[in-house]
């Protein structure tokens, strides 16, 4: 018997129903932002309430949960969200990507390839990719309706004129299923190709902006690029992670002010730890 | 809901939703629904009732096509959803062998394509292989959620209905999403993104 003072998963059943209905529609229209009635949560808006509401609406007793913040299981945001979900559901939590059935993430896609039986839930601060170029919501709705993405292309073109390359390091615009321009959330460019033809279902929640959207598995997700200026991922100059030696994972640059030394280490802590122990399956 | 059967609606609707989500994300995949013990003895289809219990509440409008045994009032009493005409409904429930006119349903607008109807339809039998299914339609599907192609066999669905559904989805993102449920509680979802070829076996 359980003795929670809240409903299972904190949210009331009406709220879950609404989010569930909207999620089914989001999956049916890949990349389209579905408006929903984002609820007040016991954390501040902008701290992952969108992802949190999705996770709480989809989670069931059999699920194992992992929460990461910039790849790390142990930062403040990840710990608090994980503790909150565990406290209101009683579910098992893990830091191992392979063990989780639901992974909630802030700004990273785990390094380990995710499977068909897993769901990745993104916390999204700004769901509207056209916000780079257009402040009006009514106007961006029209632009999506008419597939009018000219301003976005000009924005990327101007970047090339000014800097000689596209300088966006996160929130890189992608086109989903050849129809909707979509904000992949602030994941680094390193992670963008993982959205394309993936095995896993991706759900995106923006609590403050009251939008949710989805990318089904095996869906075409292409970063916007020009014929002569291709999309590229970050380059770490071939430097390996100092802890596990990986050269293929996304790295953080760390500066040690005492030794005046600069080095790189994996952003995905779970992957780094497993890799150090030789527990990662390389394909 | 009912104390005598210890029906845990929270757990039931969560499990049902996850099956629907999985099937909607992977069109043509056949999933299994759980029975709702509470209505097993009622004249209504227990699986269709279970889907209704999962999706409906007071914020949405539904319609039961050619409702013969007052399913509407039963669903209304259990979910508090509003009954409306075919033209305004968010969810259309269709019995076995019925062929409603899909063109009357909401397909959403260009700016809000999500303001469209979802059809929940009962069929005789669903399967991922055509073996053992006589007089079935064999659908070869492709589109988002499908790696190359996927096959699903449906018995109890007419070619005409499939064609009229395809016609309603001709202008993506406008369209209708379709949830098929068979007698044994097997479920298969066809979102508006699905492309298909059909063959009678």
Task: Give a written overview of the molecule.
The complex is a heterodimer of chains A (283) and B (201). With 283 residues, chain A is an alpha/beta fold. Chain A folds into two domains: 186 residues, Bacterial phosphonate metabolism protein PhnH (Rossmann fold, 3-Layer(aba) Sandwich), CATH 3.40.50.11310; 49 residues, no CATH class. Chain A is 25% helix and 18% strand. Chain A contains six helices and twelve strands. Chain A has a seven-stranded mixed beta sheet with strand order 1-9-8-5-4-2-3. In chain A, strand 2, helix 3 and strand 3 form a beta-alpha-beta unit. In chain A, helix 1 crosses helix 2. The N and C termini of chain A lie far apart (44 Å). Chain B is of the alpha/beta class. Chain B has one domain: Rossmann fold. In chain B, 23% of the residues lie in helices and 24% in strands. Chain B has four helices and eleven strands; from the N terminus they run αβαβαββββββαβββ. In chain B, the strands form two sheets. A seven-stranded mixed beta sheet of chain B has the order 1-10-9-5-4-2-3. A four-stranded antiparallel beta sheet of chain B has the order 6-8-7-11, with no helix packed on it. In chain B, strand 9 and strand 10 form a beta hairpin. In chain B, helix 1 crosses helix 2. The longest helix of chain B has 17 residues. Chain B starts with 8 loop residues before the first helix and ends with a strand. The interface between A and B is large, with 41 and 40 residues.
Topology overview:
The complex is a heterodimer of chains A (283) and B (201).
Chain A: H1 13-28, E1 34-35, H2 49-58, E2 64-69, H3 76-89, E3 92-93, E4 102-106, E5 119-123, H4 137-145, H5 150-163, E6 174-176, E7 180-182, E8 201-206, E9 211-215, E10 221-223, E11 251-256, E12 261-266, H6 269-276
Parallel strand pairs in A: 2-3, 2-4, 4-5, 5-8
Antiparallel strand pairs in A: 1-9, 6-7, 6-10, 8-9, 11-12
Helix pairs in contact in A: 1-2
Chain B: H1 9-25, E1 31-32, H2 46-55, E2 61-64, H3 71-79, E3 82-83, E4 91-94, E5 118-122, E6 125-127, E7 137-142, E8 150-155, H4 159-168, E9 177-181, E10 186-190, E11 195-200
Parallel strand pairs in B: 2-3, 2-4, 4-5, 5-9
Antiparallel strand pairs in B: 1-10, 6-8, 7-8, 7-11, 9-10
